[in-house]
Amino acid sequence: MKTFKAANSTAAFAKVKADLGKDAVILSNKTITDNGCKCCEIVAAVEHSPVAPPRQVTRDSVVDDALQDTVGWQREWSQIKGQIMALMKPQIDLSRLSPKQKMAMEYLEREDVNEKVLARIYCNLRDDPSRSIMTALDPLLKATPFEPMNWANKFQAFTGPGGAGKTTSLVRLALKIKKEKPNTRICLATADGGRGKGRLVLKHYAELSGLAFREIITRDDFALLQKESGQFDMIFVDLPGLPGKTTLEEWVHLYGMQNCPDMSMHLVLNPYYSTAQFERFTEKYKSEQLASVIWTKLDEACTFGSILNMACASGLPVSALSYGAGLKNSIKAASEEMVWRLLFMRTMPNGDIQP
Ligand SMILES: Nc1nc2c(ncn2[C@@H]2O[C@H](COP(=O)(O)OP(=O)(O)O)[C@@H](O)[C@H]2O)c(=O)[nH]1
Ligand SMILES: [Mg+2]
Question: Is residue 83 situated within a structural domain?
């Protein structure tokens, strides 16, 4: 049994994993005061349990296991799908398409739309030379614009890799809603206190715009915020970039957010990560609570195929598009048309055309 102290639960948990490995069991996780500063203390241990006798495998036990482990089940299914797609790839015969369809397929490939998605589009087009590329694409991508009427949950949390644009997007979307509906009672909460900068940005804008500000150092603070959530119409939660081996599911458990039905999580990503990196992030940020993807730094990207790839891989809608670092006129609630304009015309959501 060991005690770990750090500025917040994220950092303390990273220490637990580095020291005790992935089988560590958390015995307690509290906010404490150390030298006058609030911080997190986790007590963790590694359990050496006797090896359980092998369970008899029956049809029911297999189904039970699968139902209990929905994430594992999805992973397996996505691997199977990947293998089917790999087998299908040589079957893509562009000469079976009409010249217009073929041109569209070649264009999408140049825009970094991946093989899996191209195979799906091909199957949709193959048997009907008059079918337009847009009717084949339409079912693959959905947008749910980031506007309060579409996102009714009280808690809106922003997750994703460090530097992706979580804090900036959160601030801009919160200020946009405040401007459109000044009576909305908004709270900005940060669980990213450790590194300092994001926390200060959030605090600064909260003070400047008359929004409430809360800090989430451990699960105790989140429980408190849930208790006082009646005071607010919307609570924006800024999550930290997760250290090396920590997954979003582990992190959410650590902060007691897994049983918060009133929370939507948005994954903030840039379109220009490599394929391997996207796969890594899809694994790391997989969660039942993920509700949308927010794409940022569109102004810095030269292809946008990854937006479609991610929509197909995750089934999540796109909710917002960010295309500049400034606070003003740099983020928009997403629509499907905006994404297609990006992909086919390199047109930013504000109408600017990418050279
Ligand atoms: N060019 C550009 N920069 C952006 C965009 N969104 C965010 N940034 C910048 O990216 C950097 C990291 O953003 P931040 O919100 O702190 O990322 P976080 O670590 O995910 O919270 C900051 O310098 C932002 O100004 C965008 O759409 N375009
Ligand atoms: Mg941040």
Answer: yes
